[in-house]
Amino acid sequence: MTARFAAVLGTPIAHSLSPVLHRTAYAELGLTGWSYRAIECDEAGLAGFLAGLDGDWAGLSLTMPLKRVALDLADSVSDLAAGVGGANTLVLSGGRVHADNTDVHGVVTALREAGLAEPKSVLVLGGGATAASVLAALAELGLPAVTLAVRDPGRADPTRRVGERFGLDVRVLRLEEALTTVLDGGLVVSTLPGRAADPHAEAIARTGAALFDVVYAPWPTALARAVERAGGTVTGGFGMLLHQAVRQIELMTGRRDVPVAALRAAGERELARRARNGG
User: Fold this and answer.
1) From 216's CA, which of 12, 57, 64, 278 has a CA 20 to 30 Å away?
2) Interval 15-53: pLDDT, tens
3) Distance (Å, rounded) from C-alpha 248 to C-alpha 61?
């Protein structure tokens, strides 16, 4: 195949694991000449960046803060990305830009792999773009209702509406109030960035729920350790990252034989290397 370019955009972006995953796929699939890199880009710069791309570009992966602004810059938008209100993928073809969302697929597949796809109840921490994708994923898994825990319920309306758009009954609570909930047989999904959930680790562990924490590095988080000590099942964000990348690669390359095991191994090796080096 002819040389093609792809990249992950966002800010900050140097930490992204996406280049390792996509480059591994290209090597395994024999896509010689394909390249993938990380590029620092904020919301103000995305339109100009897109305007400067030529026909050799196959697609872009998007992280924060670009997922919402991307919808306004695309020529077409998938129903899923429109419903969620954010795109983490731009597919470039024939001079047109198509926006899509593979985060939902990543969440669904990660929860199924962890045996957490049928919880009795779900408490989602956070109300941003990732939380919106989580709500869509929970609806795809057949959950009828979810509780959304946020610091400021007044700012959670856009995310609540996403859940309702996908057929979920969404209850919004203040974070402190939600953490007194008992979730025996339930699931807590933390979409809080970095170490933002750490101060609440013991309170979350006391809910009795399993945990899906979207953070993948550094791992384990204080939250994950607390839930494990309490006897709860824990899964981190690497599975979500892996499977959303697999779907992205399929969309950008047109291949349906992406070697998931090879990508998983490459990603785990890189995370272990970073942990050894303190990064």
Assistant:
1) 57
2) 999 999 999 999 999 999 999 999 999 999 999 999 999
3) 8
- pTM score of the predicted model: 0.95
Identify the CATH number of the domain in which residue 122 sits.
3.40.50.720
What pLDDT is attached to residue 218? 87
- Average of pLDDT values for 109-130? 95
Is residue 171 within 8 A of residue 145, CB to CB? The reply is: yes
Angle at 105 between CA 101 and CA 109, to 5 degrees: 165
Cα separation of 110 and 263, whole Å?
14
Q: Within a domain: residue 109?
A: no
The answer on 272 and 208 residing in a single domain is no
Does 244 score more than 60 pLDDT? yes
Residue 195's pLDDT band (cuts 50, 70, 90): confident
- Same domain for 152 and 187, yes or no, is yes
Closest CA to 188 of 166, 159, 214: 214
CA 208 to chain centre: 24
Active site residues: 67
Coil, strand, or helix at residue 257? coil
Q: Which domain holds residue 169?
A: 116-232
Residue 149's SS3 state is strand
Q: How far apart are CA 81 and CA 89, in angstroms?
A: 9
What is the per-residue DSSP string for 62-100? Answer: E-TTSTTHHHHH-SEE-HHHHHHT--SEEEEETTEEEEE
